[in-house]
């Protein structure tokens, strides 16, 4: 098939009508046909993204309105149209509103009129896609700016967030989990609550030390706190759910939150690995502890973690350099601490523009004497 053509799916229980659609419009569009709503949903899943769906209304088992409602649950961007032979269009107004249907057309519909409406639907799809892309770029830019500032304000926890994000992405790819963007944003935001803790409490939590019952209650409430904090940011509903689920034992359920549950479990696994590694445990000790918790995580994720850790690191070599020689992508093998005790970057931090800006600012304000002569990094 010519993949440069717009994709249009026609759904009708009359096979002869479907053949007519393909014959009349197949040269202009990449046409898919389905003789039932369930078949249409399967095609949408396997052949998407599809730009336009044209469905008959009167079909057995699942009528066109119910089908297009299910389409909307599966794909928010596709533009839908409904064909009907019913004379009273007023009765279908609620159907159109409920299913967010772009256009209602009468049957029979000439190929010329149908083509004209498909062209208009494609323009609507392009407008929606452009709006979505702009929103995503704006949202991504805002998130990047927020996390960059927070990493400078609290290098300890946001250094951990960076490491957890890299590891969680590796695990997700290994077990073929999609929605990487949601995973990344959840990793960036899930440590926001720790900014509210006093410095001593932050260090205790970071090192996994015992906390008082009162402090443990506070820390346990951070997922809900962060979820509430970001609830007014558009398109973060699923990310909020991921954050709320991080730390809970994984239980496989076929419900509306099944994907979020998987991503939350992967992030939790990466957090546990980073915590034990930060405590100075070697790789064998870390995996022994994690294997004892195997039932808490998504099946296959610990094996995926083992694979990624086995592959990672073999291309990196430790080196000692001056702090002013640090470059993006380097990983610190020791803390970068000033002579007055201020922590600029924790062990394990991956150097980014925020860390470099903080180092340059302190270097300019305090001078070279406040910095260690050398720091060990992976380059």
Describe the fold and architecture:
The chain is α/β, with parallel strands linked by helices. The chain folds into 3 domains: 123 residues, Response regulator (Rossmann fold, 3-Layer(aba) Sandwich); 160 residues, Hypothetical protein af1432 (Orthogonal Bundle); 64 residues, no CATH class. 53% of the residues lie in helices and 11% in strands. The protein has 15 helices and 10 strands. The strands form 3 sheets. A 5-stranded parallel beta sheet has the order 2-1-3-4-5, with helices on both faces. It has a 3-stranded antiparallel beta sheet with strand order 6-10-7, with no helix packed on it. Strands 8-9 form a two-stranded antiparallel sheet. Helix 1 links the parallel strand 1 and strand 2. Helix 5 packs across helix 6, helix 5 runs parallel beside helix 15 and helix 6 runs antiparallel to helix 7. The two termini are 46 Å apart.
